[in-house]
Amino acid sequence: MKIGLRFFLIICLSFFSCEGPKSSDKFSVDERLANLVKNMEKEFLTLNEEIIRLGDFYQYVLANRDSLLKTADRSRYTFEGSFSNNLPVQGEELSKLILSTKSPDPEKSMEEVLFTNILDSAFKAVYEKHPIIAQVYSNSPMQVSRVYPPYDAQNLMDPDIDLVTFNFYYEGDLEHNPQKEPIWLPEVYVDPAGKGWIMSLVYPVYDGDDLFAVLGIDITVEEILHRFLEQEDGNLLIVNGIGDIVSGKSTAIEALSFPPLKNHVYTETIKSDNFRISDFNLFNSKSRQVREMGQEFLLKKENTFLFENENDLKEAIAIPFNFTDWYLIEINPY
């Protein structure tokens, strides 16, 4: 009996010693991913604070528009058609301006340019303070666009552009943002100003009850990958709530049965002319199990998915973001 009891205890101890590290390892993985999400959100939420301060400064501008208009330097910008003719120069003090032909009142649009020129220094200060930022800008219903740093708008933009039809404007309006708060747009999109695939933070500026402008801060997908994901071990990617891959390591993306990446690099792939974001959506993967993983994470809000006979993949772990409809996913092979 003593021998039998001793043997039973040895078996039990062996069982628990084998199972224990698995639970501990999973906890450490979850904790590592959660900390990465927390660090990313901390930096993104810092930009929320910045854009609110920009909005407060814009309110000051609106409150003092008459005096600013009287003292405005009318030679600060000159225009060729719809575009200010200043060239993109590093360290430039000026923004790039567009006065679209869609303006409902070109004279009032030009007045807006004059009394909002003071925004240039504020945009530049925010841009230089945060290396993650690609550009700072404002767009108005008067079809005035101000972007810092300046860019080659003449060769990239249509003089007939209708600014209010773009998500970086209308997502800030009262219909889409009744709370009048900073909003991160969950979908990445091609920047018409030539910055590639970007994500945007937008914030409305009201003049009384009327929407006067929508401020924006952009960061590039490439910067997200370089700044956060490439610094971490593991096969990591970020997807939004509809399954689009926002950013990710090539090892993670190529493991999920998506089209081949250009030079095995996602940031090069998204710059190619034939790139379609829908090709890199979890629900459009050729793999049934990857599509099921998307359902488990995005629809059922599960945190773990176990693969079965799927390209040597073992499991995937997902951690949701709080500030926008994103998920950080790690793909673990055997």
Question: What do these coordinates show?
Answer:
With about 325 residues, this protein is α+β, with helices and mostly antiparallel strands. It folds into 2 domains: about 45-220, 2-Layer Sandwich (Beta-Lactamase); about 235-334, Beta-Lactamase (2-Layer Sandwich), CATH 3.30.450. The protein is built from 10 helices and 14 strands. Strands 3, 4, 5, 6, 7, 8 and 9 form a 7-stranded antiparallel beta sheet that branches. Strand 13 (about 315-320) and strand 14 form a beta hairpin. Helix 1 packs antiparallel against helix 4 (about 120-130). The protein is elongated and about 70 Å long. Mean pLDDT is about 85; it is low at about 5-25.
Furnish the topology, listing elements before pairings.
Layout: H1 2-63, H2 65-70, E1 79-80, E2 83-84, E3 96-99, H3 106-115, H4 119-129, E4 135-139, E5 144-148, H5 153-156, H6 167-170, E6 183-184, E7 189-190, E8 197-207, E9 210-220, H7 221-227, E10 235-240, E11 245-248, H8 250-254, H9 266-269, H10 288-299, E12 304-310, E13 313-320, E14 326-333
Antiparallel strand pairs: 1-2, 3-5, 4-5, 4-9, 6-8, 7-8, 8-9, 10-11, 10-14, 12-13, 13-14
Protein name: Cache domain-containing protein
Organism: Algoriphagus halophilus
CATH architecture verdict of the largest domain:
2-Layer Sandwich
Helix content: 25-40%
What fold name stands as the CATH topology of the largest domain? Answer: Beta-Lactamase
What is the count of β-strands? 14
